[in-house]
Design brief:
With 504 residues, the protein is of the alpha+beta class. The protein is built from 17 helices and 24 strands. The strands form seven sheets. Strands 15, 16, 17, 18, 19, 22, 23 and 24 form an eight-stranded mixed β-sheet that branches. A six-stranded mixed β-sheet has the order 3-2-1-5-14-13, with helices on both faces. The protein has a two-stranded antiparallel sheet with strand order 4-7. A hairpin with a 3-residue loop joins β1 and β2. α1 packs across α6, α2 crosses α4 and α10 crosses α15. The longest helix has 25 residues. The protein is globular.
Length: 504
């Protein structure tokens, strides 16, 4: 049996075909460029997600020479919070408001005045009411585009939109909607008080399913578009952070994984929603029943490096900036620069800061550059900044009794050995690498395999389909240099935090 994983990320959609042992027959991806009309806004035409899905699936099938009927099931996951308004036929009424869009800051303040933050965290697991959450985006839409708000038949997230295009069913799952600020994760249902405030009925939201539920089979139109069979079953795999944790084998308490994709996210499996009395750590619904994920998220992780590559180039005259080759050139150049970038520090908050600073007004900063600093210094500063964000969140988790003894690294950033070494050196922890670094799409294949009965439990499926590839040890000789650079990183942010909040 073969299983297809599809993950719609912030800046790219990826698809991969796997067998029952987790071996990848083919993987393909397609990048898309967010539309950013202002510094606070990020949008995308929802049709872009669907066309990227068609293109990547067809490329995977062609590369693997797989007949359509061989694909037993496909699993779909996506970024969270991104809002898509559709009519009765599933046609988008406007561009998607992407999760890192901060236009709804005023609406977030209004919701914060209406709802007690402690009650919000207790109900939803959301630690801070900020513009990221779908509820804030919905309130913005109701205030600024009221005719469209009233005309919309359904409000969907990206996975939901793809599930509809695949099956014709408006459905979602708990591990995706848990970060909308619309979902009661303790009672496992929509949060009635929030829906009432937003003047929104449950009928205008997709049908909520358990994580890993079968949604249906491919419609004839979807099967023809993708090159698959109408017998292929479609499984809701939810939030990419949850499916990525499964793909990394992070299914038991005590495990820590991190994903550097468009965003930087850290995942810790827990069995109780009552792990953080300080209400600082975001709490998600895990794919596994009766499990949760603590998931600190930083909006611009790998996206900061993509921005640098696309804006300033990879350092090779005349070479295109797109693709992995540009990243590899940046990494080679950055490797020639000493740790700490000779005093250059970057804050990678290109679309605001989330965990642990929670400041939507935060902005990107390069601090401390001189005539000596080259493009390679700036590139290394980006790599180091993401590692510093990782450490700051791990320190926060450790203070709350969730220590990290090692880290399983995944996502596009895990392709860079140099970046993994920087993370090991900055955190002073062993970084464990995985044979399959694209853990979200592997996780989707695992979830799909369990959903159709190829495996009875996630323990069985992960034991068969997840394999480690090695370890990267921290280098003691570099400890002092990185410790000094990390102190400087924190000091720069702390010094600017108040200035950011003044929103000059």
């Amino acid at each position: 049996m073969l299983f297809l994983g599809i993950d719609a990320g912030t800046t790219a959609l990826k698809a991969g075909l796997f067998d029952e042992q987790g071996r990848a027959l083919a993987i393909a991806g397609e990048e898309y460029q967010l539309i950013t009309p202002t510094t606070a806004r990020a949008e995308l035409d929802p049709e872009t997600y669907w066309q990227a899905c068609i293109n990547t699936v067809r490329r995977v099938l062609a590369a693997s020479q797989t007949p359509p009927e061989a694909v037993v099931a496909l699993g779909v996951s996506s970024q969270g919070e991104t809002l898509i308004a559709v009519d009765r036929r599933g046609h988008a009424l406007r561009r998607a408001i992407v999760w890192l869009d901060n236009r709804a800051s005023t609406e977030a303040e209004r919701l914060a005045a209406q709802f007690d933050p402690a009650a919000v965290y207790e109900t939803t697991g959301v630690p801070e009411i900020i513009a990221t959450w779908t509820a804030c985006k919905l309130l913005w839409l109701e205030q600024h585009e009221p005719a469209l708000y009233q005309a919309a038949h359904k409000f969907l997230l990206v996975q939901d939109y793809l599930l509809y295009r695949l099956t014709g069913r408006f459905a979602t799952d708990e591990s995706l909607v848990c970060t909308t600020m619309l979902w009661n994760l303790r009672q496992r249902g929509w949060w009635d008080e929030m829906l009432a405030f937003l003047k929104l009925s449950e009928s205008r939201l997709p049908e909520p399913l358990a994580p890993g539920a079968q949604v249906g089979t491919l419609t004839l139109q979807a099967a023809e578009s993708l090159g698959l069979s109408t017998t292929t079953r479609v499984v809701a795999c939810g939030m990419d952070q949850a499916s990525g944790a499964v793909g990394a084998g992070n299914i038991h308490p005590g495990m820590i994984s991190e994903s550097t994709g468009g965003a930087l996210a850290i995942q810790a499996t827990v069995t109780s929603p009552d792990v953080d009395p300080s209400r600082r750590l975001p709490l998600y619904v895990h794919t596994l029943a009766e499990h949760f994920l603590v998931v600190p998220v930083c909006p611009t992780g790998g996206m900061a490096l993509k921005w640098f590559r696309d804006t300033f180039g990879s350092g090779q005259t005349g070479a295109p900036n797109e693709g992995d080759a540009g990243y590899e050139r940046l990494a080679r150049d950055a490797a020639q620069i000493p740790p700490g970038c000779e005093g250059l520090t970057m804050l990678p908050h290109l679309m605001g800061a989330y965990s642990p600073e929670y400041n939507a007004q935060a902005r990107g900063v390069f601090y401390g550059f001189t005539l000596r600093h080259s493009r390679a210094h700036f590139a290394r500063a980006v790599f180091e900044a993401v590692a510093f964000m990782l450490k700051r969140n791990l320190d926060e988790m450790a203070a709350l009794g969730i220590p990290a003894h090692s880290i399983r690294s995944m996502g596009g950033g895990a392709k860079s050995r140099m970046w993994l070494q920087i993370k090991a050196d900055v955190t002073n922890l062993v970084i464990e690498t995985l044979e399959q670094q694209e853990t979200a799409i592997l996780g989707n294949a695992i979830i799909a395999a369990v959903a159709v009965g190829a495996y009875q439990t996630f323990d069985q499926a992960c034991a068969a389909m997840v394999r480690m590839s090695g370890q990267i040890e921290p280098q003691p000789a570099l400890h002092d240099a990185y410790a000094e650079a990390y102190v400087r990183y924190c000091a720069v942010y702390d010094a600017l935090d108040g200035l950011f909040r003044r929103d000059l």
